[in-house]
Amino acid sequence: MKYTKDQISFEDGLKKEWLITNGIGGYASSSILGINTRKYHGLLVAALTPPARRSVILSKVDEAIRINGKYIPIYSNIGKDYITKGYKYLDSFEKRYIPIFTYKVKGILIKKMICMEYGKNTVTILYIVENIGYPTTLVLTPVMNFRDFHTTTFDKTFDLQEQIEKNQVKVIIDKKSETPVYLHCSDGTYIKHDNDTFKNMYYIEEEKRGLDALENLAVPGRYEINLEPNEQKCITFTCSLEANIEEIDAKEIINKEISRISGLLYESNLLENKNLKGKEELARDYIIASDNFVAYRPSFALYTIIAGYPWFLDWGRDTLIAFEGMLLLSKRFKEAREVLLTCIRDTKYGLVPNGYSGYDNRPLYNSVDASLLLFEQVKKYLRYTNDYEFVKERMYKTLIKIIEAYITGIDVDGNNIHLDSDDYLLSSGTPNIQNTWMDAKVGDYVVTPRNGKAVEINCLWYNALMIMSSLTELYSDIDLSKKYKEYAEKCRESFNSKFYNKNKKSLYDVLGDESVRPNQLFALNLTYPIMDLTSKEANEVFNTVTKKLLLPKGLRTLAPDEEKYIGIYKGGVYERDTSYHQGITWPWLLGLYFDAFVNMVNAEKDEKKKARLQKAYNKFITEVEEIFENEFYYSDCVVGSLSELYDSEEPYLAKGSPAQAWSIAEIFRIIFQGKDKIK
């Protein structure tokens, strides 16, 4: 992914972002112009309690050149009433393993490479400077803060404490935490600033979202590095929460990171996939993109999956939906085992945590589906690894406890989950609780409560019972196997008699709710589909979803002929959250559609019908490949990633979180596996 000066307009450059991460929940990110357009942007956004308590530490480094006494900024910033136009000197931006900026100013060439040290809250920048025929000074000015990344500091007065030892500086920015930040430059001289504040940095993306968009930041000092005529220098600048950083060599950190990613690519065997011939670069960039979301939780001594950047942490539901595409697809089986253990670590009354608090790591249980999604992913793990011993020793007892808890009933955090003894269907939630994936809530207003007998919950319940019937039989718990098979059969019978809506040729989203939504695809896409895939009803459900919900970049969350449909995601918090699942397109839903399509084609017995289905399937796979390869590299989100949402009206703009785990996971699963799924 490379953009040259001719390809980077100011407007486009502001919309495109880059992202790198450190494997423990911290990250560095900004626009490709080097202008921070979000309060979440920064060169060191550290996870103080990994992967949680993310804090903006180093907002940016403003670089300038001094030639013959003339100060030339090559940095760019936006204030409410000004723009610093250093981007005029940006000759190219490139992102492969790391972001690389190349500047040309008055004949001087400056290449800047940014890398995070894996497993540490450390960012290092390598500057390679080729000077021309007269004395020049490179000026590096760190712009800093110490705040929760969801907030801004506008009225704050910074009272910095600095300890300076040659080129290493220990800075305490926030006396409340007294956490020191360390700065070091491998060359030049550090010059301390007194009471220097960067005022009114303006975050245009936050203003679009109806949030505070102005901030003041601290400027503790600057480094000045002299260059002789025709001299070339390599300079390392480092910012870290770790002491003793003076020995860090940026080139060494960069080489280690490239070697680590290359090792992941080698272990994945993706380059051996015959379908990826000529797409080796795409395979590498998928590994880089997916690796950004795989993070270690030191307090658990286990891996987890971050749902999205910049503002999400790890969520149980998101983790399990992204599980195959993040880890199994790339053969990261060790991390896959640990993620499964993370999911069940704090299971309470049969509920897998839907996430953990970003402030105190307290488990949150507002989810009816996370526990049920777990069974499908355990089944997929077994399909990839055949590791039945791990499942028996580490997972099996918890899986039984979850099933038994759902049968008995669960009333935790308002979930109100119970099995109806008349029809063996699951009911959950209340009008005031959002516990499915359509979980938007504004204050006390639940946008899509979906309480009652929700379609995907019962599909997942049937699937979980069937998987457990198989496992209990394998592990010689014959009575349990028979019990779960009996419950599954009764659930399936009730589902097929109650959920099909003849009027709309679709499934009720919740019994009594005729809204046409993509959740009904769960009836077709799982290991054990609850519907007969060769039935007229199953075909009508799939056709209705195709006609009313399928778009080039995902599936609508509500059909456009429904009264509450909203097709554009925009505005402040209320406007955005009330449209979130009311028609906006989500790319991860293509994974549901893909699996349903595969199941439908493979189940079809009539050769002519199968041929027609397969032709449509091949067209779908080709379109996904073409659309999302372009989207991956060139869309207005994080280059080399995929966003959370898209508008459902042309031109289908990327919206929401600019880098989302389940978007990457599901789209690349389709791209890499699509041609091999049909039997």
Written account of the structure:
The structure is a single chain. The protein has 679 residues and is of the alpha+beta class. Helices cover 33% and strands 26% of the residues. It contains 16 helices and 38 strands. The strands form 12 sheets. A 9-stranded antiparallel β-sheet has the order 1-9-10-11-12-21-16-15-14, with helices on one face. β33 and β34 form a beta hairpin. α9 (455-474) runs antiparallel to α10 (478-498) and α14 (589-603) packs antiparallel against α15 (607-634). The chain is elongated and about 85 Å long.
Q: Percent of residues in beta strands?
A: 25-35%
Poorly predicted tracts of residues: none
What's the arrangement of strands in the largest beta sheet? 1-9-10-11-12-21-16-15-14
Q: Which structural class should the secondary elements be placed in?
A: alpha+beta
Q: Measured on Cα atoms, how large is the radius of gyration? A: 26 Å
Output the number of helix runs.
16
Mean pLDDT: 95
Span between N and C termini? 36 Å
Sheet having the most strands: 9 strands, antiparallel
Considering the chains and any ligands shown, give keywords for the structure.
elongated, 16 helices, alpha+beta, 9-stranded antiparallel beta sheet, 679 residues
